[in-house]
Amino acid sequence: MLNKHNLSKMKEENKKIAMITAYDYPSAKMAEEAGADMILVGDSLGMTVLGYDSTIPVTTEDMIHHGKAVTRGAPETFKVVDMPFMSYHISMEDSLKNAMRLFQDTGAQALKLEGSGEVLETMERLIGAGIPVVGHIGLTPQSVNVLGGYKVQGKDRETAEQLLEEAKQIEAAGAMAIVLECVPRQLAELITSYLSIPTIGIGAGAECDGQVLVYHDILKYGVERVPKFVKSYMDSNEQLGEAVKSYVREVKDGSFPEEKHTFTMPSESLPKL
Ligand code: KIV
Ligand code: NA
Hints:
It comes from Halobacillus mangrovi. The chain is α/β, with parallel strands linked by helices and 273 residues long.
């Protein structure tokens, strides 16, 4: 399995890191069978599988519940679990306890924390305690209400400098990798060349050391609209939708089940009425 060491080696050798989210047993199994280098149990599960309209309502319990299922589906793949909203902001003690449960109970190999600033100290403490950490800067969805929406970050000189600074600080805190979300590709390229830890981009261009996308976006499964940076490789809404409609139609018109779907018994064994 991947680790901090061979992840950095992939960067040195210019080998792209393929990361995908997974939230349950089948998606994890599929990611592992596809040869993904890393699986992210993202708090995007709040939207993709729980039907919330942001990641804000997601709890530590939700992450543990889904993380365990992912581990059963992808036992051999490096798994990163998101620390959800406010689970690492109340106090150091609370953060460490939540991190311990997210790490131990799910069997993940690392935790991901959004942002920098006061989160840096938490990262250091986690790493010091033996929990590998992945950073996440740029568009950080847990802060959507502070950022003022889901939009590209770091487009001007000042915010670009700030993001570069945050990336340096996260590397200095000991993080093993960093997710760059929704930043211009020129800035992502600059950060990628500056850092020695790998960058994993989502909406951050091709120069990042790796890419991550949301499982449901790749499959266009349950999501109505996908952002510009997503490539959907199929339209599950349409294809799965057709299959489910066919089932309902066939039950109603009596064409399902057929003889081949049916069990039989000798007629003399039937109770007499
Ligand atoms: O939760 C998530 O899916 C993520 C990725 C978009 C990086 O954090
Ligand atoms: Na996330």
